[in-house]
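Feature request, filed as a ticket because there's no other form

It would be nice if the structure record came with a short human-readable summary line next to the tokens. Right now we just get the raw output. Example of a typical job, pasted below so the devs can see what we mean:
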Amino acid sequence: MTQPLRVEPELYTDVPNIDFYIRNGLLFGIYEGRPHAFIRENPDADMLNALSHFGGGLPLAILEEESYEELKRRFLELKSEEGIGGIEGFESPEEIENFLQNEDLLASEDSAPIIRYVNSLFVQALKRRATDIHIETFEKEGDVRFRIDGVLNRIATLNKGAVNSIINRIKVISNLDISESRIPQDGRTKVTIAGAGVDVRVSILPTYYGEKAVLRLLMKGESIPSLQQLGFSEEVFSKLKSLLKHSYGMILITGPTGSGKSTTLHSFLKEIDHEHYNIVTVEDPVEYNAEGINQIQVNEKVNLTFSEALRSILRQDPDVIMVGEMRDKETAKIATQAAMTGHLLLSTLHTNSASAAIPRLIDMGIDPFLVSSTLIGIIAQRLVRLLCPHCKTGYLPSDEDIRYFDLPHDVRLFGPKGCDKCGGTGYIGRRAIGEIIVVDEAFAAQIKGGADEQSLRRYLLEHTDFRPMFNELRRMVIEGETSIPEAVRIGVKSI
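Raw output as currently delivered:
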């Protein structure tokens, strides 16, 4: 038998009954300029059976395991993409209830158009790095939108009947009531796409013209970025590294929804020595599978709230505690006590700046003295979209832009255009920017004295090396990393 090949042939699809052969493991591609049939090393009975039925007269080659799996993945992906346009002839929800929820969607043989379309939505969302799928119903039609790099992008406009059928399909795979459209419903499901597991959180909401569905996609096993990979400036990175060397106290991350706070929390935990510390988290939901860390999923149906979980964690001899979000006064009080009693406590708050976290804690019932005694650091952050390097276009800024961002008059800025590389958005990827407060004795005295946010921020600017994140955003605009519209969108103020 010939030596297995380690190659990446182009797909070849001009084969009668190709679905049958692919389903049984016989693949086709262009190798050395001509079509070939491919099998893997050690073929199974199905593959040999498919080979015995094949009379196409193509030369046969054997692929190494890695090359074979890559070619198979590309065939399955192509098959799913072909289904995204087949939207006529809708099937009723009852006719598709037998769909195998846990099978690989790319390998599904079911050809019902709605099933194929929903399958394709998952595949396309992951290919385009979307975190959420929005399916919306309006008076005469509906929209499908993907949230890519934090911004919603319209993918398709469909007739109203199609949207209703798609939402019913989503209800079926999420174990929701397809006969109920008057009340909100929440569910979840798991799908497998090209071997990758995806947890899907589903929210259905009745609106005036029909139901709206939002699907949050959580990749199982997605790697946690290191602190350096987040993209913070060298100054912020260095201060964060120093803060994480503390053995007790509270570190807070602030920012609006979707600013990357949870990812930064997990990057913090990645920096900490897992072998010699007992690290426990309470999250809603658990977004990353963090090896060596004890993770608790909030479940309010059984009263496993943030505060209840935190109480139990304190009886588990923890060294480091991560609370996904301080949602209420009770959680904030327990967390503050934990930080006071020898634990390193990491959590998040919804505030727009680092200095705003302090009055927020006080508003939640934490005494200023306790805040000043436990808080060791605060970082406020945003995720900034990066201009596509393949299509960004240069221009001269307006007088208004020059005034707002205090730009040099001779600067040349860049804006988004859109191309195949970036999916027409003009942006590829995001990076974090932030501002960080390191609480020293002098600043703690300001907190204890009851200074308001404006006074605290003025003190930071006049007496410390604090740098607002607007400074980093301005630098990114000047250097062509991002655009003026993106800088305005994320809403960072100049002071």
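Something like this underneath would help us a lot:
The chain has a mean pLDDT of 87.
The radius of gyration is 27 Å.
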